[in-house]
Amino acid sequence: SRRAAAAALFSVLMALGLAACGDTTGEAEERTAEPVSADADSPSSAVPTGPDASGDSAGGSGDDAVAQDRVVPVVTTEYAIEMPDRLETGWTTFDFHNAGDQVHFVILYRLAEGHDIEDQREHVVPAFDALMEGLRSGEMTKADIGPFLVEEIPEWGLQMTYVGGAGLLSPGRSTRSTFLVDEPGTYLAECYVKAPDGTWHTSMGMLHEVEVVASESRGSPPEADHDVRVGSDGVEAPERVEPGRTTFRVTMLEDPQSFMPYDLNLARIDDETDLDELVFWMDWSNVGGLRAPAPVEFLGGVEHMNAVSHGTMTVDLEPGRYLWISEIDAARMHKAFEVGTAAGQEGGG
C-alpha cells in the first residue's frame, strides 16, 4: 500500500538524517569532495557452478579458498559496469577493478518479482534525477525528499533485496568482495555515485541486469584473517592489523531503522583527512554527497546487505592509517585502525 511505502521511506529518511530540522542544501552542500578487458570470462556468459560445497567457511586462507569458477570479473568505467549477465546462486566473489577516472562501487540487489531493468529505468531512476535537480536548483529542500519520493516511486521500487557487492573503489584500484546470493531472480548491479556535475552514475549507464538461476551447490567464502561487525552500537574491528594481503569478514549484526541496510567501505586516511568532510560526502542527499572526486582514497568494501548476513573483502594493505565507514549514518558508523608491523609500534590492538 502507499501507506506502507510512505512508512518505509520515512524510516530511511530518518536514518539518513533527512527529517532533521533546518535545511542545508545551499552553498555548503556544493562542497567538492570529488575496463580492463574481461574477455577471458565473457560478460555475456554464465559463471559456472563451483565445487559441491555448502559450508560457510573455507579450508584455505584468503583467495586460495575461493573456487575460481565462482569469481566474477567486474570492471567499471565511465559510465558502464562490465560483468556477466547471468550468475548462479551461492557464494559469489566480485573481482572488481575500477578502470575509470572516478570512484565507483557495484551493489547487487534483487528486484521485486515481475520487474526488470526497464521498469527501474522508467519508474525509479527519473524520480532521483528530478530530486537531485530540485535540490541543486534550490527549488526543493531536504524536507521535500520524503513526500516527493513517496509520490514518485511505485511501491515495488521499495521492495528490492540487497545481497552485497563491492564497495567504493578509487580509480585504478582492484579489490575482491565475496557475498551470498541465495535466491534466483532478476537482479540489478548499480553504481549511484554522482559525476562531477552532480548527475547520478546510474542515469549515465551504470545499471546492469543480472539473471540469477538456482544452483545445487552453495560454494564457500574465503577464510578471514579478521572479523568486523556492524550494528547499532557502531563498527567493531581490530585497532591494528599487519600489512599484506588481508581478508576481512564483515557481519551485519542487525538492520538499521532504514530502508537500506548497512554497507561498509574501507578508506586510506592521513593527517590531512577531514572526517567531517568525508561524513558529509557519504550522504547522497547532500548536493555534494557521493559526488566525484572523493575526498579520500577508497579501497573497496562490502556493499549493503540485510542482517544477519556476512561477506568478505580481500585487500592488500600497506603500513598507514585506515578507516571503515558506512554510507548509513556515517557520523556514527566509522572506525579507524592502523596497519604496521609489530616492531616499532606503540600500544596494543
Could you tell me how far the N terminus lies from the C terminus, measured between alpha carbons in angstroms?
Answer: 49 Å
Q: How much helix, percentage-wise, in residues?
A: 10-25%
Number of strands: 18
Task: Sketch the major β-sheet.
Answer: 10 strands, mixed
The value of Rg in angstroms is 19 Å
Amount of beta strand: 25-35%
Count of helices? 5
- Please write the string of helix (H) and strand (E) elements: HEEEEEHHHEEEEEEEEEHEEEE
The rough form would be described as: globular
Unreliable segments (pLDDT under 50, ≥5 consecutive)? 14-64, 343-349
Write out the strand line-up for the largest beta sheet, numbering strands in chain order.
3-9-8-5-6-15-14-17-18-12
Provide the residue-averaged pLDDT: 84
* Helical/strand content category: alpha+beta
Question: What would you say this structure looks like, in words?
Answer:
This protein is an alpha+beta fold. It is built from five helices and 18 strands. The protein has helices spanning 2-15, 117-123, 125-137, 142-152, 275-282, and strands spanning 71-77, 80-82, 86-88, 90-98, 104-110, 161-169, 174-181, 185-190, 207-213, 226-231, 234-236, 240-241, 244-252, 264-269, 297-302, 309-317, 320-325, 334-339. It has a ten-stranded mixed beta sheet with strand order 3-9-8-5-6-15-14-17-18-12, with no helix packed on it. Strands 2-1-4-7-16-13-10-11 form an eight-stranded mixed beta sheet, with no helix packed on it. Helix 1 (2-15) runs antiparallel to helix 4 (142-152) and helix 3 (125-137) runs antiparallel to helix 4 (142-152). The chain is globular and about 55 Å long. It starts with a helix and ends in a 10-residue tail after the last strand. Residues 14-64 and 343-349 have low confidence and may be disordered.
